[in-house]
């Protein structure tokens, strides 16, 4: 059975066609610059790749091109759209409404709209993509898989901000957390890899990509995570500031004559390691620059590693111990020196890194700690699309 996974951003749409039985990715790609000049479709199926500039004035036209290329005689992966049994949509914010994945009916779309206030950058794009798919394939079941759902198990002691309780009662202001499908997948895979019983384990998962978050997974459940009401909270990221004193907003708004939206835009898009280094959000660029003597690139990398380590430390406290720490996503799976810098801060835990194994572990699962390390450190590639496809399959197979 083939499941199409769709991840709709405000101006992009990523897709993967997955055979759920073999877990094989039959085709994948991205529509970029939707609504903009120069929109482009990049597609890959088996060993064939194609890139073509096509006008995409909206998400519906982008999805139309995806369906066309998936069934293309030369570059496609299937003969007809009937071979797609269901579509799984990545949905960012489910608020307090969605504790697990759901069949995307009209009520679900309406509730997602209600949550849009909490994720104004993400939910409207998810909804637009979902509706466009429904219009083009009205008889195909659609499922929404929420980034926030895995964190529904977090208790009030960890999700409440120390702000007036009425803000929570009236406006649902609290920590929600994101990257839930990744933390779920990586914590389970790590337990399996290490021979731990997930129901009796303490695992800290570090999803370090363009957006980054850390999660404390106790007995298979998320009990705390670094992102909050929005993905801005937590560690410093590629372009996001992560935690900071909220008074900075007022100070900068006054000094630079900006309104709150403008300051937030800077905290989301021009901060993090890009903001500190004045150079790039990409850790490959930063390493190269540091090697060429760039001091700001050096500081940016250290700020990042220090903050990740501090969150890990705080989650050891939250779980009263830790069995394993797992790194995933672009930086976690590939940036060997960043992993080394993070682990250096964790010596107090009795953690010991096997430097040779660490250096040689790029984009694959491995234990990178020494045999006598008190806590196991792993690299575990994430696969959010597979979780979305599996959840979709589980829901539609019960219909
Ligand atoms: P996204 O959040 O967009 O899914 P990814 O998980 O793909 O992000 O992570 C992208 C980031 O991973 C890049 O910006 C870069 O900083 C980092 N990265 C990717 N490959 C490498 C590498 N080989 N070495 C160091 N950093 C890398």
Q: Which small-molecule ligands are present, each listed once? A: adenosine-5'-diphosphate
The number of E-state strands comes to 14
Strand order of the largest sheet: 5-4-3-2-1-6-8-7
Q: Which CATH class of the largest domain applies here?
A: Alpha Beta
How much of the polypeptide forms β-strand, as a percent range? 15-25%
Order of helices and strands: EEEEEHEEHHEHHHEEEHHHHHEHHHEEH
Shape: globular
Number of domains: 2
CATH superfamily of the largest domain: ATPase, nucleotide binding domain
Query: Sheet with the most strands?
Result: 8 strands, mixed
Helical content stands at 25-40%
How does the SSE layout of this entry go?
Elements: E1 2-8, E2 12-19, E3 24-32, E4 40-45, E5 48-53, H1 59-70, E6 84-91, E7 102-103, H2 106-114, H3 123-136, E8 142-146, H4 156-159, H5 165-171, H6 180-194, E9 202-208, E10 212-218, E11 221-225, H7 247-256, H8 260-269, H9 272-277, H10 283-291, H11 295-319, E12 324-328, H12 329-334, H13 336-344, H14 355-359, E13 366-367, E14 376-379, H15 384-396
Parallel strand pairs: 1-6, 6-8, 9-12, 12-14
Antiparallel strand pairs: 1-2, 2-3, 3-4, 4-5, 7-8, 9-10, 10-11, 13-14
Helix pairs in contact: 1-3, 7-8, 10-11, 11-13
This protein binds adenosine-5'-diphosphate.
Adenosine-5'-diphosphate binds at residues 209-211, 238, 281-284, 329-331, 334-335.
Description:
Helices cover 39% and strands 20% of the residues. It is α/β, with parallel strands linked by helices. It has 2 domains: 2-146, ATPase, nucleotide binding domain (Nucleotidyltransferase, domain 5, 2-Layer Sandwich), CATH 3.30.420.40; 195-384, Nucleotidyltransferase, domain 5 (2-Layer Sandwich). The chain has an 8-stranded mixed beta sheet with strand order 5-4-3-2-1-6-8-7, with helices on both faces. The chain has a 6-stranded mixed beta sheet with strand order 11-10-9-12-14-13, sandwiched between helices. A hairpin with a 4-residue loop joins strand 2 (12-19) and strand 3 (24-32). The radius of gyration is 21 Å and the shape is globular. The structure holds adenosine-5'-diphosphate. The site of adenosine-5'-diphosphate (ADP) has 13 residues, from helix 10 and helix 12.
